[in-house]
Amino acid sequence: METQNLFFGFCPIQNPNNSLFPILPSSSSYCRSSSSSQILCPKRLCCKTLYPLSSKFLWLKTKLQCKNSLPEYVKPVSGDYEDLKTGIRKKNLAVFVSGGGSNFRSIHESILGGSIHGEIVVLVTNKPGCGGAEYARDNGIPVILFPKMKENLENLSANDLVTTLRRYKVDFILLAGFLKLIPVELVQAYPRSILNIHPSLLPAFGGKSYYGMKVHQAVIASGARYSGPTIHFVDEHYDTGRILAQRVVPVLTNDTAHELAARVLEKEHELYVEVATALCEERIIWREDGVPLIRNKENPNDYS
User: Fold this and answer.
1) Might you give the EC number(s) for this enzyme (predicted)?
2) Cα(first)–Cα(last) distance of the chain, in Å?
């Protein structure tokens, strides 16, 4: 192994974005200064398969020397030190909303609480005055408008949207009550990387005419005994992509659409946070027949 390297003591690789990133040994392998926020020279060196780290959170000075004097140091900043231990980079998320964005808020709050290893870097909406867009602005999340409409020149075209999301280095797209069909340009640009949540047990009660309260009304009218949310990958059509996760909610004898909607929404919030967590921890795998599964965090041999 080459001992003379740009990063003394680290073994870098070239990632798809042409950036070099280091991986560090466990915390017990470091000399530390009197300040716990400074990691000094490593006692041991390791070389593993690396995952890229966000350069904006990592300051690395390149002339490290472990001699008589203290070396210059790597300064970890919130979140990225965990990246170094797990080898999993924090994921950049884009969320699409058309309404109040309660699922968007639930995911964002879980990110702030540290349970989701990701960051919402941009919100996309077709309704700039909706509750989800207002919440994004209040929390410093950029808002962009899509699709392009004659009456609003600020809205992006499909190709412009793809270009913009790439500038934000978006890894995954989460649809959370977005009522427009996702363009084929975006589906092709982000294969197996766009998720949607639907308030019924797909493939039942899905499709273009099924959204919002219409779904719950149809479920009750059908006499179905169970309903619940579905999270699925997005393809070029409404609600036809591969199903990733579901939760079951009973339909009660005298349910109204609003009562059923409230119970389903509660499960939506729980399920989307669980799926977003697994997504950012790289625990979603694809079976040979094209079915996506979620690997259990505690027992990697179990899937759901």
Assistant:
1) 2.1.2.2
2) 41
Low-confidence residues in the chain, pLDDT < 50? 1-81
Domains of the chain: 1-88 (no CATH), 91-294 (3.40.50.170)
Q: Is 198 a catalytic residue?
A: yes
204 in helix, strand or coil?
Answer: coil
Spatial distance between the Cα atoms of 145 and 129, rounded to a whole number of angstroms:
11
What are the phi and psi torsion angles at 268 (to 5°)?
-55, -50
Distance CA 155, CA 144 (A): 7
Task: List strands edge to edge, sheet with 230-233.
Answer: 143-145, 118-125, 91-97, 172-175, 194-198, 230-233, 243-246
pLDDT in tens, 23-61: 333 343 333 333 333 333 333 333 333 334 444 333 333
Residues 6 or more apart from 31 whose CB is under 8 A from it? 40, 41, 42, 43
Res 149: pLDDT: 79
Run of H or E including 165: helix 158-167
Length of the chain: 304
Distance of CA 295 to the CA centre of its chain: 16
